[in-house]
User: What shape does this take?
Amino acid sequence: MDSSKIRTALALSERIRKKEISVREGLDATFEIIDQKEKSLHAFLTIDREGAYKEADRLQEKVDAREMFGPLFGVPVAVKDNLCTKGIRTTCGSKMLENFVPPYDATAVQSLKDAGMIIVGKTNMDEFAMGNTTETSYFGCTKNPRSEAHVPGGSSGGSAAAVAAGECLVALGTDTGGSVRQPASHCGVVGVKPTYGSISRHGLIAYCSSMDQVGPIAGNVTDCAALMEALCTWDPKDSTSIKRGSLDSLTAVKQGRLDVPTYGKRGRLDILSSLEDGVPGMKIGLPKEYFSAGLDPQVAASVMRAAETLERHGAILKEFSLPLFQYFVPDYYLIACAEASSNLERYDGMKYGLRVPGSDLHDTYRKTRTQGFGEEVRRRILLGTFALSEGYYDAYYLKALKVRRLVANAFDDALKEFDLILGPTAPTTAPRLGEADQDLVKSYLADVYTVPANLTGLPAISLPCGVGEGGLPIGVQFMGRRFEEALLFKAARVLEKETCQNG
Ligand code: GLN
Assistant: This one.
């Protein structure tokens, strides 16, 4: 059996568990494609061939001993390079951490291992996850596998490109303002930003902690759902991690104390089990503001076609007006930079990471941080420090927090009327390499559709809905109520069956 022909992670795992192919053979197919494509693509920063084969042999013993397996058992997976991996270099796309080898695994990485998945390597990303093209990586850009003259999006560009190129079937990204969904959209794959608190942030190198969230990336909706289920665990090591469906949370909801999940048997998500339910009666809102100036007409047309497909399958569509649209991006960037300036303070050349010795302590700090961080990271630290300084804190940071609350209220109000909010993931298809640098403000503004899910903590999914000029993919995005990822996946599955080859 030629395992390179297996196109989904679930199918690959099934074949492995039925012993139709070995775990090693599954891995061979992955490395074969990596060897073919990596030279031009540059999706990976580190490849752990030796570790992966060692793990494959260990897993094969489990198959042979007929031990219990999950639906992703034996599947190779790529991990974004801002998630700590024990014994594997974790750079965050930065010179600052070029030689950093973590002594522990991030909880999300541990979840992959618990699911019997094999980590094949670490993927390229914008430095410290700041960017939307993967061009701010200290190690050079990744190319978009659909067209190598274009960026893959970012900041999880390496993960999205690796999946799109078939270098792996599934990958982990992280999403602070769209970094899973936007590269998924630009590369023509599926990406999810879960409800804040769903997947542990322990071991994720912090950018903006109140918005950072790990998210699954896959070539199709079902694989993405399976990976999501494997990742959602309660983690005492992350104080913002949420216990789904636990007795405690159910009591809290009944008492009106907390907004925590009520679905799922025995604390499980039940996304896969409801995936094929369809969308009859589902109420879907289309914000008028999303379809205004700035949106590429070919993207608008594709997204509208996706909405009509759902309508044909029984969903009820309605346009509505979403307030505060013009504040999404400034609000996001203010808060993100403020938190980044505080989070990145730890890179001082003393504890770990790069050290550039200076004439005294302060000179060492200055030299280390000037040489260790790239231009975009330095810009954001400066902006954030300014916004948090005495005299400006109230005018900028505190104001931004108030706006964030208003944005959350606006979405909560809309989601009282609608089950889902549908819109584009990005205003255009993937830009050309080097294009974003020419107009930074325009590049920031391109995050307008993705940042609200992070400001509000709501879940969102991006999946392919068409192709634009030059064969570049177009993505559609659904946002839903907290902990109702299952609805997003159901709608996505309906659409995928009509539009994608992999469905
Ligand atoms: N493009 C956004 C930024 O640069 C989002 C990044 C992210 O989600 N990590 O902040």
Notes: The chain has 16 helices and eleven strands.
